Amino acid sequence: MSQRAFRWAGIAALLILMARLASVAAQPLSNADTWFNLRLGADIGAPWHWADPPQWSTYATTDWVPTQPLAAAAMSAVERVAGLPGVAWLYGVGLLTFLLTVYGICRAYASPLIAALGTCLALIGASGSLSARPQLISLVLVPLVVHVWLRTQEDGRARWWLVPMTWLWAMCHGFWIVGVAIGFAVTAGLLLAGPSRRQAARLALVPLASLAAAALTPVGPKLLLTPFVVNDRSHLISEWQRASFASIEPWPAAIMVVLAGVLLASRKQLTVAEGLLIAMAAGGIVLNGRTVALAGLIVVPLCVRALQERVSFPLDAGSRSVELRRLWLTGAAMAVVLGLVVPHTSDEPAKVPTAFDARLDAVRDGETVLNDPPAGSWLVWRHPQVNVVVDGLFDAYPVSHLERTLSVMQAQPGWQAYVARADPVLAVLVAGEPLVGALRDSGWRLVDEDAGYVLLEPPKSGRP
């Protein structure tokens, strides 16, 4: 197979991936986090109010701060102008940007075919996180930050523009802290390796300044404490649980970590800083499901570089800029086509009980609806007058309430007292949930079923 054939095989593979992601975006929105982010963006108000976000439920009594106010506000603004098709289009643009960014970074270290292979592995590893929510911004920026710090390792230049970028990133998603950690890892590696420790110490000012910049957002210094808030609730959130190798997502990152570590170390080309990045990626694989995506994005530049050094065909750097420019133009054309398609394919949501809307619209302001978290995320956006018992924004709820609510959904002992105190006028629950059967047995009436949910009405006494 000729070098030209290898080159076009890589580009063809990327075009197929681009088309696939565009088709994913041209579907009805269905991720539960999309809904509460739209509500957050609508309610968040001016930046000087971000440190005191609104509460959507009488049960949401935790003092919390939003980690994605700017991104949520942007999503909500698009929805107000263009409806759900506009949000779907924004999602598609984000997916294409993610793919082209990862490929462009890989292409700086490898030929088209190997860059496409690395991009595909990173995409598979991140597939569980590529939904219509602000996290997509972090998935674009993490590999960019890795690439920038690898360049800094080579030329010793401080990229001070990372500081204002981190300031913006900190208002878009909580994984900004990963970008800062990458900077500290590389500068620590440079300090350990020498010989120019003074230069390495100067470079360490960049992540330090980035950390300070994050504390200067409208949310304030409390933003620095949000990782600890998430950690308190991690045992209640499935994507924050340790990733299982029974699923496919951890495998691409694990393969890339092994390849990068073994191939670079075997040729004695692995620097201390790169070793720390590989260790950081390995830690992300075993930490939890959400950091698996980050692990692959951190290690992919090192992996493709290691593979490129083992093959006979050249990097083909001369055609890289033209190639990338054409790919970005192709992505822009796909975004235009997507904008024409989504009004016909994404104007209605999916996996939410829209058949209940008329009945839920009739619920008076402040009346409680008994619900589980996915339904709550939909309710707080589509039916904002409803007092939910929980929604997907777990940061706003005390851990004790979350634990109790999740046990009630399983009809654990004491559920009757919980329901009696809540005094709900309706219940929106996942069909087949143990609580559904318990409520039916205690006199609740099935009103409707839709999209895997049931709508229940309490007996006339209002008590189970």
Automatic annotation (TrEMBL):
Which parts form a coiled-coil structure per UniProt?
A: none
Q: Provide the protein name.
A: Glycosyltransferase RgtA/B/C/D-like domain-containing protein
Instruction: List keywords of the entry alphabetically.
Output: Membrane, Signal, Transmembrane, Transmembrane helix
Q: Which organism is it from?
A: Aeromicrobium ginsengisoli
Source species, domain of life = Bacteria
Q: Give the stretches traversing the membrane.
A: 88-106, 113-132, 167-192, 204-225, 245-265, 277-307
Leader sequence range is 1-25
